[in-house]
Design goal:
Blueprint lengths: L2 H13 L11 H9 L5 H7 L5 H9 L5 H7 L5 H9 L5 H7 L5 H9 L5 H7 L5 H9 L5 H7 L5 H9 L5 H7 L5 H10 L10
Helix pairs in contact: 1-2, 2-4, 4-6, 6-8, 8-10, 10-12, 12-14
């Protein structure tokens, strides 16, 4: 079977308004269609109900997915699908705030990685039980300085080192981190603020 030929056939049918039942197609064809940025939104919406999570995952990763469609997929039973929504560049603040409270660590980590995540959600994730999530918050370029100050007190040295590398970390915090008990944190602070720490021994 020619995969591209089959997927084009389905796309043409959709554009012509011909009813299409995704479940009737082979899985690899459905995946190809769900990934294709040319796939009409109406068809993507239909495929978001697919029984196979891999198809729903592909829909959630499609750059043409609408906010309404992403909102629906944010409540999907599959953590892989919710993770894809959390990483989507079109995910709204409301979606990201909702997913910041997800039970699955990988979803919360994806939210912390998303540059569109609102500061309120980042502040919430800064207190996450997972150090990986907190480290991702410390790495997010839009994390507010006041949240970075809190993370500079984190028990995990990797989080503190990430704070030391953040461009928005206040200079007073860098001075404090330069005296951290962990040498990697001290080195990160020294590299960030090298001009002011030329004589610093790490």
């Amino acid at each position: 079977m020619n995969l591209q030929k089959e997927s084009r056939k389905v796309l043409v049918k959709s554009c012509l308004g011909i009813t299409y039942l995704p479940q009737a197609e082979e899985l690899h064809v459905r995946l190809e269609i769900a990934r294709d940025p040319r796939t009409p939104l109406q068809l993507l919406t239909q495929m978001a109900q697919d029984k196979d999570f891999r198809v729903r995952l592909a829909v959630g990763s499609n750059p043409q997915a609408s906010v309404q469609l992403l909102t629906s997929l944010a409540q999907d039973e599959s953590e892989e699908v919710r993770e894809a929504v959390a990483l989507h560049p079109q995910a709204s603040s409301e979606i990201l705030t909702w997913l910041a409270q997800d039970k699955d660590e990988r979803v919360r980590l994806a939210v912390a990685d998303n540059c569109r995540t609102p500061s309120e959600a980042l502040a919430h994730l800064a207190a996450d039980a997972s150090w990986r999530v907190r480290e991702a918050v410390a790495q997010n370029p839009h994390t507010p300085p006041e949240v970075l100050v809190r993370l500079a007190l984190d028990d995990a040295w990797g989080v503190r080192a990430t704070v030391a590398r953040h461009p928005q970390t206040p200079s007073q915090v860098l001075i404090w981190l330069a005296k951290d008990r962990n040498r990697y944190v001290r080195r990160a602070a020294a590299r960030h603020f090298s001009d002011g720490f030329k004589d610093l021994r790490v």
